[in-house]
Structures are given as C-alpha cells and as structure tokens.
Write a structure and sequence with these properties.
Length: 231
C-alpha cells in the first residue's frame, strides 16, 4: 500500500536474506508492498553496512530498517541515512560506539558459544550437528537441517569490527528479546535494549531464530514501528 513505508530487512551471521522468508510473507499479507531483504557478504562490518546503505537508497520514501542478530550491528552502522525513520532489532546486537559484537559476546557468552568453530580459511561456522540446538531449537528438524546446511559463515574478523556512530542514538528504535536465545545471551539483549531507551521492547519465549519461529509477533513489532514513525 502506498501509505506504508518501505521495509528493509538485514540478516545476521549464519544465514542469508532467506532467513526472513516467514516475515516477508506476513508483511506482504498485511499490506506492505515495498519489501527488501539485503544479502550481506559477512566479510566486514564496513562491507555489510555499505551493501545495506545501497539497498536503503534504492527504497522509495521512508524506510523502517530491521536487523536480526549481527544485522543489528549493521543497521546501527548504516541507519544514519535520512530516509531511515525507524530501527527494529530482532534478537540483535546493538553495539555502542567503539563496541563490537565479539566484545559484547565475550562479556556474557551465550549457551552455544562452544558450538562455533573456525575453518582453515578464517570463516566461522556453527557445527552442523549442533545447529538445531544452538540456533533454532523451536523450529522443526527439517527446517533446522536446511538452515544448518545453507548457513552463511562470516569471516571471523567481522566479530571484532567496531560500530562507529550508532544510529540508535538518534533514531527511534524498537527491540525484541529472545528469552531462550543460545547465540546471544538473553541478558546481553536485555542490557543492550535498556540502554537504547527504545520506544518499545518485547520479549518472546523464542530461540535466536525468532524471525522464523514467531514471525507474527516479529511483524507485529515492525508494524508498530512503521505506524508510529511514518503514519
């Protein structure tokens, strides 16, 4: 619908744009017609933020920018463009200036931290045989298997890339905490959400993959952000 903003969705580590599939279909059902899902290279925060900015610039009119997991660091870095009206964080990192996802993780390691392993090329993977229990324990085994096999590994160095000037300090933001998250400690999510002073925080009884297991509730939050910032 013409009166609805563009929605730009930004994935995190160990997945691509298709991780948003259930959210995309639900947004479309609710009348959001201008939908974009960034496919980030996961090679550095700078690379991913620039790819996201290019997508934002292609969107018509105001944008609601949504990030899952590491995608939260990306939207924090890339969300300063003037047409971005709202930031929505879905079980996501929200680093402050000079912070990295790796630093935040080390301060409060999540339950599945030991299930991440590097390969000989410097990419980090979630071990396939532990992917279901680590990333998406509230999805069925078949969906988890597809996620495990198609996971998109980041360069390990990306974990250490610092955000420079977080957009959440200037733009209205919303945050969804996953209470059963094993990839980002739920207490880290609560801490990051609290310091952002978001318009609204919701907590779901969900895994890290809340965008797949509870897309209705995730879209509810996106819809509120769209309505309250763009009418």
């Amino acid at each position: 619908m013409a009166d609805k903003p563009s929605i730009v969705l930004v994935h995190g580590f160990w997945g691509g744009a298709a991780h948003w599939s259930h959210v995309i279909t639900e947004l479309h059902r609710r009348g959001f017609g201008d939908l974009h899902a960034v496919e980030n290279p996961l090679t550095s925060l700078a690379d991913d933020a620039e790819r996201t900015r290019k997508m934002i610039r292609q969107a018509a009119g105001p944008v609601v920018l949504v990030g899952h997991s590491y995608g939260g660091a990306v939207i924090s870095e890339a969300g300063d463009l003037p047409n971005v009206q709202a930031l929505v964080y879905i079980a996501a990192f929200a680093p402050d200036a000079g912070e990295s996802p790796g630093q935040i993780t080390q301060e409060h390691p999540p339950a599945a931290f030991e299930n991440i392993a590097p390969d000989s090329d410097g990419y980090l993977w979630i071990k396939q045989d532990t992917f279901h229990e680590s990333f998406c324990q509230d999805l069925d085994a078949d969906e988890a298997l597809v996620m495990a096999v198609t996971q998109k590994a980041p360069l390990g160095s990306t974990f250490g890339d610092n955000v420079t000037a977080p957009a959440w300090r200037k733009k209205p933001c919303w945050y969804q905490v996953s209470a059963q998250d094993r990839m980002i400690h739920p207490d880290n999510e609560r801490r990051m959400a609290a310091r952002m002073n978001p318009v609204k925080t919701i907590e779901l009884d969900a895994s890290h993959a809340s965008l797949a297991s509870q897309p209705g509730a995730v879209v509810d939050l996106i819809e509120v952000a769209a309505r309250e910032t763009t009418g």
